[in-house]
Amino acid sequence: MSLRLSTVILPYRRWSEGGRGAWQRAEQLGFHTGYTYDHLSWRTFRDGPWFGAVPTLTAAAAVTDRLRLGTLVTSPNFRHPVTLAKELISLDDISGGRVTLGIGAGGTGFDATALGQEPWTPRERADRFAEFVPLLDRLLTEDSVSYEGDFYAAHEARNIPGCVQRPRLPFAVAATGPRGLRLAARHGQAWVTTGDPKLYENGTPEQSIQAIRGQVEKLADACAEIGRDTRELDKILLTGFTPDRARPLESLDAFVDFAGRHRELGFTEIVIHWPIPDSDFAADEKVFEQIAMEAPAQLR
Q1: Helix (H) or strand (E) holding 254
Q2: How many whole angstroms separate alpha carbon 233 and alpha carbon 203?
Q3: Fewest CB atoms within 10 A around its CB: which of 140, 151, 168, 238?
């Protein structure tokens, strides 16, 4: 199976000052999907420009034709299923059915408190995510939904005409814990991981491979519990958060080696960050483009 190559374009540039060009260039380079983060701000970018994910993806849909578009990832931290569903259906329509929703439970940080709430515990995030995903699934597949849960409610929420993609746009569920993996198995068309965060600072690439192998095995177990073949799910690795850090982008050979080792674990898509100077995602743009143009052929 050939390995797809995608990219994340962070929404930190004005559309007229490089934002538009990056998305168009991503399509020219042949990337499978162009993703962006769905945050209100993010880490070291917090005190600089940062634009909204859905408007950015809508604009990207208008200036591309083939590139799939998506979030990595949307979370319940500041989203409600009813309003999110309406935005996603609109985006799927504008893009002609090119949207993938990357979705996760969220975490700590600015997003978790920007609306004035206290940050949720890991248990609370998992509880909300377990309610958020099934409700969003219904909202994107049914014309009218009424629901009353512990955290979310919908009263005759209308979503006509629904998604261009049927029965709805695909979910790429980010998860490593048992509850999240069960959601990925039941509702996902893809599963997303960034590796094991505990290994980021002091782990080795070999330890990371072993940890990710364990995650893949747990996903297979979650699928087996409901009688689903794990091969039905695409498996997506968002790079930049393993002990390798930026090393896979140092050369074409380094990337092909990195991607090949993860393909052996069953991954079907590798996502690399669009280079951002003077950041954690700094990389040589010429090498980045060489990887985009040449690596997929070497990974078939």
Answers
A1: helix 252-263
A2: 28
A3: 151
Query: What are the tens digits of pLDDT across the range 235-289?
Result: 999 999 999 988 999 999 999 999 999 999 999 999 999 999 999 999 999 999 9
Q: For the purposes of burial, counting CB atoms within 10 Å of the CB of 247, is it exposed (0-12), middle (13-18) or buried (19 or more)? A: middle
User: Which two three-digit tokens encode residue 274?
Assistant: 């669009």
Predicted TM-score of the model (pTM): 0.96
Render pLDDT for 173-202 as a digit per residue (tens, 0 to 9).
999 999 999 999 999 999 999 999 999 999
What's the alpha-carbon Rg for the chain, to the nearest Å? 18
User: How far are the Cα atoms of 9, 174, 250 from residue 282, in angstroms, in the given order?
Assistant: 13, 24, 10
Angle 3-103-231 (CA atoms, 0-180°, nearest 5)?
40
Q: Which two tokens stand for residue 67?
A: 């590139």
